[in-house]
Amino acid sequence: QVQLVESGGGLVQAGGSLRLSCAASGSIFSIASMGWYRQAPGKQRELVAGITSGGSTNYADSVKGRFTISRDNAKNTVYLQMNSLKPEDTAVYYCNLLWELAQGNLEVWGQGTLVTVSS
């Protein structure tokens, strides 16, 4: 069974930086796509950044140039480096693992970590 544990959230002033980490258990990390999502109060959960097993990345327009997603397969960990943070980045950030199989996908979510950006 795969489990994801996020860490690194907290309170930061606008313009500051944080790095989120997501550690995965199990043996499928290196062949799965990973993503960071966020959900602000009263809003739907949205994709922030994703990275495939091959290392290709994609970002929401709102974070391009400020956030960087990366992965370390040796440590079963995915990171989200967040720079130039804005108050509108305040949200609960969730780690996601997606393993696409012919017979159906395996998708796992972390418990979330709160990021608060003060103005």
Q: In a few lines, what is going on in this structure?
A:
With 119 residues, the protein is mainly β. The chain contains no helices and eleven strands.
Task: Give a description of the structure.
The chain is mainly beta. The protein is built from no helices and eleven strands. Helices cover 0% and strands 52% of the residues. A hairpin with a 4-residue loop joins strand 7 and strand 8. It is globular and about 45 Å long.
Q: Could you tell me the mean pLDDT?
A: 96
Order of helices and strands: EEEEEEEEEEE
Range of strand content: over 45%
Number of distinct helices: 0
Largest sheet: 7 strands, mixed
* Rg, Å, rounded: 14 Å
Give the helix/strand class: mainly beta
For the terminal residues, how far apart are their CA atoms?
A: 40 Å
Low-confidence stretches: none
Describe this protein with a few key phrases.
globular, 11 strands, seven-stranded mixed beta sheet, 119 residues, mainly beta, four-stranded antiparallel beta sheet
List the helices and strands and how they pair.
Blueprint: E1 4-7, E2 10-13, E3 18-24, E4 33-39, E5 46-51, E6 57-59, E7 67-72, E8 77-82, E9 91-99, E10 106-109, E11 113-118
Parallel strand pairs: 2-11
Antiparallel strand pairs: 1-3, 3-8, 4-5, 4-9, 5-6, 7-8, 9-10, 9-11
